[in-house]
Design brief:
With about 200 residues, the protein is mainly α. The protein is about 65% helix and about 0% strand. The protein contains nine helices and two strands. A two-stranded antiparallel sheet has the order 1-2. Helix 1 packs across helix 5 and helix 1 runs parallel beside helix 6. The chain is elongated. The N terminus is likely disordered.
């Protein structure tokens, strides 16, 4: 017999032996993976429910033809400059002054201007003015629910209460009033209320 060689099923001391993984480590990894997957799936279900609620709530706005204003009152006043902004950006011109409103109006100096807000500007550039604003309203409604859901998680509320609070915030009378009045800028700013409180709490 020579050292370092396998002879008759006997391993010599010079041959490295495999190091088995302890069973408790395998069990701990399985439990940790299961918990992480379960938490991720529960959060995904909550976000999917909020997204579905936002779409269902916005159906009266989404299903109207594009040549009919989906909302009343201030909608035409707040949305009309988006056409000029979209035209300017597609022509590689930065919109600073709107010459089509009365004798002219500064876009960047408007206190309720939301024309350069990414959540509204990106859909407008991608889909057009009216369809883009519709998409922006749905996204804003969804983010409002997400912000309230995060606020509930920040204060350690149970999952069911977080989802319930998010639904109540999305369907609140204040937001419904903004929808009926066509206050697009107010609707777009609505998600920042719970998000600001969430980051303040953290």
């Amino acid at each position: 017999r020579r050292q370092g060689y396998r002879t008759q099923g006997v391993v010599s001391p010079s041959t490295p032996r495999p190091c088995p993984v302890p069973r408790y480590l395998l069990n701990f990894g399985a439990v940790l993976t299961h918990r992480w997957t379960r938490r991720f799936s529960s959060r995904a279900y909550d976000l999917a429910a909020l997204a579905l609620l936002a779409v269902l709530y916005s159906l009266p706005v989404l299903t109207r033809p594009n040549d009919v204003l989906p909302l009343a009152a201030d909608f035409d006043i707040e949305v009309a400059p988006y056409a000029f902004v979209r035209e300017s950006l597609l022509d590689l011109r930065f919109p600073i002054w709107n010459p089509y409103y009365a004798t002219g109006q500064p876009l960047l100096g408007d206190p309720i201007a939301s024309y350069l807000y990414p959540l509204s500007l990106a859909p407008v550039l991608a889909f057009g003015v009216i369809p883009g604003i519709k998409v922006a309203l749905v996204l804003s409604l969804f983010l409002s629910g997400v912000g309230q859901w995060l606020l509930g998680r920040a204060v350690n509320l149970p999952r069911s209460l977080c989802l319930w609070a998010a639904a109540l915030f999305m369907l609140s009378g204040n937001l419904a009033n903004k929808f009926s009045d066509g206050n697009v800028a107010h609707i777009l700013s609505y998600p920042f209320v719970p998000l600001a409180l969430t980051f303040t709490w953290l």
